[in-house]
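re: ur question from earlier - yeah i can do the single chain one, its not a big deal. heres the input i used so u can compare w yours
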Amino acid sequence: VLSGLLSLQESGATLERPLTIFLGKDPDIPADGAYVMVGDCARVKGELNFVGGCPPDREEVYRRLARYIAR
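and the output i got, formated as tokens:
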């Protein structure tokens, strides 16, 4: 997760809005939908905004975070 965030920062990218990143069990999912669940432990059945793996794939984390970048 940190390497994906650092890559985006180094490219000069900025987030469109605050983003919650969940690691670990039982995430408290916000109503506004600005979140990404990362890693197998954060998985919630039926949620699609999720990057699986233990550890999760760095490139997939980067692609998921990139959806929230201001254009």
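The chain is about 25% helix and 15% strand. not sure if urs matches, ping me
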